[in-house]
């Protein structure tokens, strides 16, 4: 009976995770359209050309598959993982329908996503998550963050990090200083194998298109490699 319920739970997780992927595809296309309707006519052609590309899953389904395997192997973590998955689903289904969300909502979504992906790595893996946001700041609860804006940086870290190599790590830092929000994500990549760009580059193109439309002159996206450590840094100004 316990095994039967366990199998049902795993099946339910598989269905839920597939639903998450589909919803993210839909929401990305919708966000591109919303950015288009914001009055940025010079981006019309670019947004339209990205609409079909955004239908492709940018949140790598392999990340969820590995997380699911970890959940199956460690039953005691199942309900914890389900709680985090529920948070991710709620955000995608309801909160991301809005043009902007609060920093609190976006960060909580990102943290839940990180915790789901934490299950795919060894308990000894160096996954560093730091939150240096002053929750007393009025900007913390003001709606000025585009939903899902943090997803690309976090996804790429888990996708490209060398999880098996000695000294491997992923470091994620959330900061709010004055009127500036910064997300910095770093990870060690395989020696001798430079980080490969996506075939179409659509991930970066979509993110930069959204940033240009929603934060004109108030954003900076920096990506660089130094000593086998890849770093992506997103800075937004209110």
Helix-residue proportion: 40-55%
Shape annotation: globular
What Rg do the Cα atoms give?
A: 18 Å
CATH topology: Heat Shock Protein 90
Count of discrete structural domains: 1
Q: Can you tell me about this structure?
A:
The chain has seven helices and seven strands, in the order ααααβαββαββαββ. The protein is an alpha+beta fold and 238 residues long. It has a single domain (2-237), classed as Histidine kinase-like ATPase, C-terminal domain (Heat Shock Protein 90, 2-Layer Sandwich), CATH 3.30.565.10. A hairpin with a 2-residue loop joins β6 and β7 (229-237). α4 (78-93) runs antiparallel to α5. Residues 51-59 have low confidence and may be disordered.
Which terms would index this structure?
five-stranded mixed sheet, 7 strands, single chain, globular, 47% helix, alpha+beta, 20% strand, Heat Shock Protein 90, 238 residues, 7 helices, two-stranded antiparallel sheet
Show the helix and strand layout.
Layout: H1 2-36, H2 44-51, H3 61-73, H4 78-93, E1 101-102, H5 103-118, E2 126-132, E3 143-145, H6 151-160, E4 169-177, E5 180-188, H7 202-214, E6 219-226, E7 229-237
Short description:
This protein is 47% helix and 20% strand.
